[in-house]
Design a protein that fits this description.
about 230 residues; Phage tail proteins - horseshoe like beta roll fold; single chain; 4 helices; alpha+beta
C-alpha cells in the first residue's frame, strides 16, 4: 500500500467518514480519488497473496514483447491501434478551502505519472494550441485534497491517448501476458512501438490453442526505448 498524496484525518467535530458497500468497493472508491488501483495477486509463497493499493504500476520490469508482422517472431494478430487526441483533459477551477475559508485557484495541465511515450496527448494539445479543459466543480475540500483529486482526474484522462487491442498466441509468446504490468510492443513503427500498460486481458482456451485478447494503453506517441527485447 502506498501513502496517498493527502492523508488528512478529519476530527469528530468536522465529519465522520462512513463506508457504504463492500470492503472491496470502498477500497476502489478511495483509490479513484487519486487514480489509484487495488488488486490482489497470488504469492510470493504457497498460500500467500499480495494486495496492492496505489498508482498504476509502471516501475516494474516489462514482460516479453508483443510482436506484429515480424515473420517467425510474430505472436499477435488482429492488432488495432486507436489514437484519441481528445482523451486527455486539463482541469481548472477554484476551491474554497474548508479550513482557511479562502478561495484558491486550481489548475492541473499535465500528468505526474512516469511517461511511457515521448509525446503525450496533453503535450500535443499544447503544441497545437487546442486545449480540452474541464471545470473543477467539487466543493467542501481542503486545498491539498482538492489538488490531489484534480491531479488524479488529469492522470486518469491522459492514460488512454493510445489504445491497442489484439489477440496474443501464448504458445508463440512463450508465457502468459500479465494484467496491470508493463509490456513492450514491436513491429508497429516508432510511433506506436515501445512500452504500454496492460489494462485488460481475456483468456480463451481451446484444443491445441491458448489465446489472450488484450488491451494495452499509454498516454501518447513515440517510443521511449530504443530497443525492444524478446
Amino acid at each position: 500500500m502506498q501513502t496517498p498524496p493527502t492523508n488528512i484525518t478529519p476530527s469528530r467535530n468536522d465529519r465522520i467518514p462512513a463506508q457504504s458497500g463492500s470492503d472491496l468497493a470502498y477500497l476502489r472508491e478511495l483509490g479513484e480519488r487519486f487514480d489509484y488501483v487495488f488488486f490482489i495477486t497470488a504469492g510470493p509463497g504457497v498460500g500467500q497473496n499480495t494486495a496492492y493499493w496505489g498508482p498504476r504500476p509502471r516501475g516494474r520490469r516489462s514482460q516479453g514483447a508483443i510482436t506484429v508482422d515480424m515473420g517467425p517472431f510474430t505472436n499477435a494478430s488482429g492488432v488495432n491501434v486507436q489514437f484519441d487526441a481528445q482523451a486527455a483533459t486539463q482541469l481548472e477551477g477554484r476551491i474554497q478551502d474548508r479550513r482557511t475559508n479562502q478561495i484558491q485557484p486550481l489548475r492541473v495541465a499535465t500528468s505526474d505519472r512516469q511517461p511511457l511515450s515521448q509525446q503525450s496527448v496533453l503535450q500535443l494539445q499544447q503544441r497545437q494550441s487546442v486545449r480540452r479543459v474541464q471545470t473543477y466543480e467539487e466543493t467542501g475540500h481542503e486545498l491539498a485534497r482538492a489538488q490531489a483529486r484534480t491531479q488524479g482526474m488529469v492522470n486518469r484522462s491522459a492514460e488512454t491517448g493510445i489504445t491497442v487491442t489484439g489477440e496474443l498466441d501464448t504458445l508463440r509468446y512463450g508465457d502468459l501476458l500479465r494484467l496491470r504490468e508493463l509490456v513492450t510492443l514491436r513491429g508497429m513503427g516508432n510511433t506506436h512501438d515501445g512500452l504500454y500498460y496492460v489494462k485488460n486481458v481475456t483468456h480463451r482456451i481451446g484444443k491445441g490453442e491458448y489465446q489472450q485478447s488484450f488491451t494495452i494503453t499509454r498516454e501518447g506517441r513515440n517510443s521511449t526505448v530504443s530497443r525492444v527485447g524478446r
